[in-house]
Design goal:
Layout lengths: L18 H22 L8 E2 L11 E5 L5 E3 L2 E3 L4 H12 L3 E6 L5 H13 L4 E5 L1 E2 L6
Parallel strand pairs: 1-7, 2-5, 5-6
Antiparallel strand pairs: 2-3, 3-4
Length: 140
């Protein structure tokens, strides 16, 4: 019996297999959808709510966040209380702004936020804003 030798032939493939590309794009889309809300504000806090009218104008400045444990963050970077003034001043110079916005968690002690504001006043900062959430429907 003579065995016939099978010769393989290769063909060029002119089509692009996009199934893998679609998979990668969908995974990236899901990652961006999950991470986008986290990028808006790195420190998650529960802002106190108020029915006061919101300021509609866009404002730029340094954002100081006080979380519910009393940790202080300058533009989402933790700040040691011993060098708070130096870091805040450096951040204000780098952003070329004189405005500071304070975001305090609703569960944080009132004295912790007042201490931060007092330290900023001693530094000569006059443009200090308090960031609040908007309460729907008024107080109950």
């Amino acid at each position: 019996m003579i065995r016939r030798r099978h010769i393989r032939s290769y063909h060029t493939m002119a089509d692009i297999n996009i199934a893998n590309l679609v998979d990668v794009v969908l995974v990236l889309l899901i990652i961006f959808m999950i991470s986008a809300p986290l990028l808006q504000s790195g420190i998650e806090i529960d802002l106190p709510k108020t029915t006061a009218a919101a300021i509609e104008e866009e404002a730029e400045g340094v954002v100081i966040t006080v979380d519910k444990k009393g940790g202080v963050y300058i533009n989402d970077v933790f700040s040691n209380p011993t060098n708070f003034e130096e870091r805040l001043k450096a951040e204000m110079v780098s952003k070329n702004t004189g405005s500071v916005y304070v975001r305090g968690d609703s569960a944080v002690a009132y004295g912790a936020v007042i201490d931060i504001i007092g330290r900023m006043k001693e530094m000569g900062i006059e443009a200090i804003g308090l960031v609040t959430g908007h309460e729907e429907g008024g107080r109950k």
